[in-house]
Amino acid sequence: MLFKEQNIPLSPEIEAYYKKINQDLWKSFEEGNQLVHGALELITDLQDQYDLYIVTNGVSKTQYKRLRASGLFLLFKDIFVSEDTGSQKPKKEYFDCVFARIANFDVNQALIIGDSLSADIKGGQLAGLDTCWLNPEMKPNNTGIVIVMSVYIFLRIIDSR
Questions:
Q1: Residue 54, domain member (yes or no)
Q2: Which residue in 50, 57, 41 sits closest to 77, CA to CA?
């Protein structure tokens, strides 16, 4: 489906190569949780002031395992994994499902912070959310997706204290 959406012909060689890379990436995710420096402390502070939720694409079993291992699991009110919602980011249907499951949800009082321009930022914008791109490595944005806010600036301010 990914290749079809991107208009890339899928030969047996490309499919085998994709599966190997994908398998290696999932193995890396399962073996180690690499948190952004200061993320656990920031989330711990924010949970007392805001209702925090995780919106993520992927396989539920893997995502829950990663979140438990990272120490983040209990800091969020709920977790929405694409496998469970029947749709994935950036599709509006994914966000509609999430919004329906959060009591008294107000899109005007929400912000999505994400590291993927194509899934998190584009998806948030399609769903009417304010967005903030997590970009600690200061990657260039060559996508055409408009960035309103970048977390890198805030992380620098927090680290400089």
A1: yes
A2: 50
C-alpha separations of 1 from 7, 8, 12, 55, 57 in Å = 10, 10, 15, 21, 15
pTM: 0.73
**CA 102 to CA 151: how far, in whole Å?**
25
Query: Parallel, antiparallel, or unpaired: how do β-strands 53-56 and 111-114 relate?
Result: unpaired
Q: Rounded to 5 degrees, what are φ and ψ at 128?
A: 85, 15
Say how many domains are in the chain.
1
Residue 38 has phi, psi (to 5 degrees) of 90, -5
Within a domain: 26:
no
Per-residue pLDDT of the chain (161 residues; tens, 9 = 90+): 566 766 778 788 877 877 777 676 666 655 557 677 777 888 888 888 899 999 999 889 988 988 888 888 899 999 999 999 999 999 999 999 999 999 999 999 999 998 899 999 999 999 999 999 888 778 889 999 988 777 554 444 444 43
Share of the chain residues as helix, strand and coil, in percent rounded to the nearest 5: 50, 10, 40
Q: Residue 89: which domain range?
A: 36-159
